[in-house]
């Protein structure tokens, strides 16, 4: 597995349906990083409607963070896919940043039915006990449900985009390969190669030729967990199938360079990537 060398060879088992463990989102920041530092960017809610809500999914109610400008809309909509650490303050802030730019942004807690991420303090444990047990089909279905919820709560179904970080970047690739209603996607340092298991059968690279919307990938040249050549192979497969995929590499950036609450944050690269992401959405009709 490319994401974390220390959990290579992990086996995944089907998730038993046992209801939702998390009924609300994480307050503050994740406990599962080596060091959380002061957040570089803090976005207030002035002029926004920012709140936690519940989104109906196939087997229950999923806690979700939503932010949009005040007013009736309809707003262009962006699904925000979390890192492995849950929908904590950083992901909520990303939603508010998007709302300040005019979007309805929502981040569903995709792992809510598996574990309470607010109590987990070790990233390897999260991969073993949560990520490996999250069926891709369920993740994609949950994102479809979030998109449908947005449409009935002020979002514009014809201006739908997706943005994800780390594992959420992987899922951004998969969702762009799944949902033909997407207009644009932005994957921040998303692995395109991952273990293929019964519940996570394809890696994004396997389906790259099926990307259904223009996709922008933002990657760090010093990212030890993602092979640059794998990303370029995925992009080439997409382009060979007539798809629009653009990869931007920041030579000196590590993995997680947008995560402004961690030491991996690189301000200049994060700011440039953010500008590129917003321009990408607007260029392709999500704005």
Fill in the keyword field for this structure.
287 residues; alpha/beta; Rossmann fold; eight-stranded mixed β-sheet; 6 helices; disordered N terminus
Can you characterise this structure?
This protein is an alpha/beta fold and 287 residues long. It has one domain: Alpha/Beta hydrolase fold, catalytic domain (Rossmann fold, 3-Layer(aba) Sandwich). 26% of the residues lie in helices and 21% in strands. It is built from six helices and eight strands; from the N terminus they run βββαβααβαββαβα. Strands 1-2-4-3-5-6-7-8 form an eight-stranded mixed sheet, sandwiched between helices. The N terminus is likely disordered.
CA gyration radius, whole angstroms: 17 Å
Main beta-sheet annotation: 8 strands, mixed
Spans of at least 5 consecutive residues with low confidence: 1-17
Mean pLDDT, all residues? 90
Span of the ends, CA to CA:
36 Å
Which geometry do the CA atoms define?
Answer: globular
CATH architecture: 3-Layer(aba) Sandwich
Number of domains: 1
- Helix coverage percent of residues? 25-40%
Q: What structural class do the secondary elements suggest? A: alpha/beta
CATH superfamily: Alpha/Beta hydrolase fold, catalytic domain
CATH topology: Rossmann fold
SSE string:
EEEHEHHEHEEHEH
Helical region count? 6
């Amino acid at each position: 597995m490319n994401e974390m060398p220390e959990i290579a060879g992990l086996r995944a088992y089907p998730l038993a349906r046992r209801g939702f463990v998390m009924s609300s989102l994480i307050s503050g920041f994740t406990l599962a990083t080596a060091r959380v530092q002061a957040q570089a960017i803090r976005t207030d809610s002035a002029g926004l409607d920012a709140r936690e809500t519940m989104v109906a999914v196939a087997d229950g109610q999923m806690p979700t963070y939503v932010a949009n400008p005040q007013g009736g809309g309809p707003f262009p909509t962006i699904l925000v896919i979390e890192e492995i650490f849950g929908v904590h303050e950083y992901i909520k802030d990303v939603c508010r940043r998007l709302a300040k730019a005019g979007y309805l942004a929502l981040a569903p807690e995709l792992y809510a039915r598996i574990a309470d991420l607010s109590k987990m303090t070790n990233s390897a444990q999260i991969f073993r006990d949560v990520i490996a047990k999250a069926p891709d089909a369920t993740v994609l279905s949950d994102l479809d449900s979030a998109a449908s919820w947005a449409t009935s709560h002020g979002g514009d179904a014809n201006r739908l985009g997706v943005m994800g970080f780390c594992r959420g970047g992987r899922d951004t690739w998969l969702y762009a390969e799944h949902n033909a209603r997407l207009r644009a996607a932005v994957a921040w340092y998303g692995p395109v190669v991952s273990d293929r298991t019964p519940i996570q059968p394809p890696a994004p690279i396997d389906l790259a030729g099926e990307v259904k919307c223009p996709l922008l990938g933002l990657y760090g040249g010093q990212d030890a967990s993602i092979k640059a050549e794998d990303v370029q192979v995925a992009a080439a497969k997409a382009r060979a199938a007539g798809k629009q995929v653009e990869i931007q590499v920041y030579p000196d950036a590590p993995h997680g360079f947008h995560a402004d609450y961690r030491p991996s944050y690189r301000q200049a690269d994060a700011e440039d990537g953010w500008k590129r992401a917003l321009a990408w959405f607007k260029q392709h009709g999500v704005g």
